[in-house]
Every structure is written in C-alpha cells, then in structure tokens.
C-alpha cells in the first residue's frame, strides 16, 4: 500500500464508471488510484483527465504493480474472465460490476478462480448500501415486522432505442441477456438479501415492439419463497418515461414499501414510519441519474474486507443466487411451466 493507502486500479471507462470515479475521489484519503485502463486510449485519457487519475498503459502494468492491492472491473461481462484470471493469479483482490458473467457456469468459474487464488471477489450491488435498504433488512431480520407473507417487485424502467443500438447491448454474446441480467438484477439481488431464497417461479418473458434487440425487455412472473411467502415481479425497460423500481413486503405486523431510496412502513396498529431520502435510480432515459454515495460505501466496505481478511458485503459466491433466479425465470418462460430452484446452496 502506497503511503498506507490501498492501491486500486480501474479497468473500463464506460457509462458505469462515472459513479465509481466519484466514489474513488471521495475516498482518496484511504485509496491510491494506481491507474486507469481502457482499450481505447482516447477514452482512458479523457476519463483519467476528468477525475485526476493516472493512466495505465496496459493490464500487465497494473497487475504487476507491487503497490496495487485490488482492481475494479467495469467492463462488459463478456470481457471479464481473462481479466479476473490475470489479476487473481497476481494476488490482487477484485471488485466487479454486475453481473458476474453472462452465464451462471461462467460466473461460477470466476468465483472459483478467485477462491483458488485466495483473493476477495466483491460484486457491485450498491442498492444494498442505501440507508432505506439496510433499515428494511434490519427490521425483517430482527423479526420486528413479523413473518413475510407477500413480496411484490416492480422495475418499470425506460430505455431509448439508441441505448440498444450500441454494439452488443441487449445481446446474449456481450451482456448475457436483457432486462433481467442488465437492469432488474439489482432489485432481484436486494430482494433475495432481504426476503430470502426463492424456491419456485413461473414467468413470461418477451421483447416488446418498442425495442429492436435480441434479448428480453419485459418479464413478469410469480414466485414462491423458501420461507412460504408468495411473490410477484414485473421488470421492463419499455415503460416510458420510466419510473423508480420498488420492493413491497407485506408482513404480519406491517407492510413495507421501498422505493427511490425511501422506506415507508405502515404498521397495522396505525403508525407510519419513514426512513431514508428520495434519490434518482436511473430508471428513465438517463441510466446514470443516481448519486454515487452507495458506490462509495460499497467500495469502502470492500477495501476494509480486503485489508482485514474478511468477506465483502456481497461476495461473488453470494451473487450466484441472483444468477440462479434469473436462469429459472427465463427457463420458465421458454418452457411454459413452473421451475423449481435447486441451486440455493450456491454450489
């Protein structure tokens, strides 16, 4: 570590890199950005110049840097495997954007590579770090709301066709799918972390007339949870002009509604409780219309985990759960039947 600060490398300077950059600048007292790399030299120069970060000339230059402790991978999922192998074999911890990979088998391989090399693998599911999200999980885990009976998920987002006109976007080859693995994955992961594993799903997936793309832009379905609760979900990028995603959980003692960074709890005794502050979520035409505070807290947790030898808040192995759920939803739609999840053990 340079001067006691944790050395970080950034690989990828696309759209998703903006909140990471803001978070890294907020954490400059504990972090030393060792270099930024992108295959496009003009893009990496512009990105590094905008945020005052040094430029890395190659992946090897970062991986071989003795002062580099970890790499943040902000590349498309199709460009992950070789990077993970290179940094893990160099003994560098890895923080990676969602999804882990395009398929669950490939995601499992990435998790195994990191475990075999003894490095920490964290996944960027920043919605878990919202104040409202943490408050809801705390109340569910403590039993304050009582047993969960019903879970309702809504992701009514909008993307212009221009979004899908970018080469590879919305394809299986680059992204691994559509709205589920690229957008709704955040809400599904948060749901699993709060409400627990899903046991069975029945779903329909489709591509609406509003988009020209290979994968799905709409999914709806029902869920049965391991704890006996029932649930529903709807996720789309075809709902103009786009709205905030939400999770509603109906329990014995109260109903909780999580939306736009705010948690509202309606207690059955007549009380109403509100936690958090409203914030953008990127559900409209601007996918990056949200603050970087959640990224900052997630990166801080990852750095602390790497330095102390513990697991980060969201490990690669834990992230496999949402991959299994997405697989089951898509399988259900293809085969027109209910699908049971048998991989909740994360193996």
TrEMBL record:
<dbReference type="InterPro" id="IPR055170">
    <property type="entry name" value="GFO_IDH_MocA-like_dom"/>
</dbReference>
<feature type="domain" description="Gfo/Idh/MocA-like oxidoreductase N-terminal">
    <location>
        <begin position="6"/>
        <end position="122"/>
    </location>
</feature>
<feature type="domain" description="GFO/IDH/MocA-like oxidoreductase">
    <location>
        <begin position="135"/>
        <end position="256"/>
    </location>
</feature>
<dbReference type="Pfam" id="PF22725">
    <property type="entry name" value="GFO_IDH_MocA_C3"/>
</dbReference>
<dbReference type="InterPro" id="IPR052515">
    <property type="entry name" value="Gfo/Idh/MocA_Oxidoreductase"/>
</dbReference>
<dbReference type="InterPro" id="IPR000683">
    <property type="entry name" value="Gfo/Idh/MocA-like_OxRdtase_N"/>
</dbReference>
<protein>
    <submittedName>
        <fullName>Gfo/Idh/MocA family oxidoreductase</fullName>
    </submittedName>
</protein>
<dbReference type="Pfam" id="PF01408">
    <property type="entry name" value="GFO_IDH_MocA"/>
</dbReference>
<dbReference type="InterPro" id="IPR036291">
    <property type="entry name" value="NAD(P)-bd_dom_sf"/>
</dbReference>
């Amino acid at each position: 570590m340079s001067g006691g600060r944790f050395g970080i490398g950034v690989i990828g300077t696309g759209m998703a890199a903006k909140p990471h950059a803001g978070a890294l600048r907020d954490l400059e007292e504990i972090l030393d950005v060792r270099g930024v790399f992108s295959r496009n030299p003009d893009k990496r120069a512009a990105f590094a110049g905008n945020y005052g970060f040094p430029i890395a000339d190659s992946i090897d230059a970062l991986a071989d840097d003795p002062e580099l402790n970890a790499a943040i991978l902000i590349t498309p999922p199709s460009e992950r495997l070789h990077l993970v192998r290179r940094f893990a074999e160099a003994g560098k911890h890895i923080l990676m954007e969602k999804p882990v990979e395009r398929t669950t088998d490939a995601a499992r391989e990435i998790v195994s590579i990191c475990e075999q090399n003894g490095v920490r693998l964290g996944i960027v599911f920043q919605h878990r770090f919202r104040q409202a999200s943490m408050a809801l999980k705390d109340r569910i885990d403590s039993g304050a709301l009582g047993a969960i009976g019903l879970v309702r998920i809504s992701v009514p987002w909008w993307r212009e066709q221009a979004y899908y006109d970018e080469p590879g976007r919305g394809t299986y080859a680059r992204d691994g799918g559509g709205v589920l693995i690229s957008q709704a994955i955040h809400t599904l992961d948060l749901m699993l972390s709060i409400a627990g594993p899903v046991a069975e799903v029945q779903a329909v997936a489709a591509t609406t007339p509003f988009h020209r793309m290979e994968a799905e832009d709409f999914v709806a379905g029902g869920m049965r949870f391991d704890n006996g609760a029932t649930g529903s979900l709807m996720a789309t990028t075809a709902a103009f002009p786009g709205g905030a995603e939400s999770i509603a959980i109906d329990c014995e003692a109260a109903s909780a509604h999580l939306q736009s960074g705010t948690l509202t709890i309606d207690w059955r005794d007549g009380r109403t409780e509100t936690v958090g502050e409203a914030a953008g979520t990127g559900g409209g035409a601007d996918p990056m219309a949200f603050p970087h505070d959640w990224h900052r807290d997630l990166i801080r947790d990852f750095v602390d985990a790497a330095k102390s030898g513990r697991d980060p808040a969201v490990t690669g192995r834990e992230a496999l759960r949402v991959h299994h759920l997405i697989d089951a939803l898509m399988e259900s739609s293809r085969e027109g039947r209910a699908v049971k999840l048998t991989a909740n053990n994360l193996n």
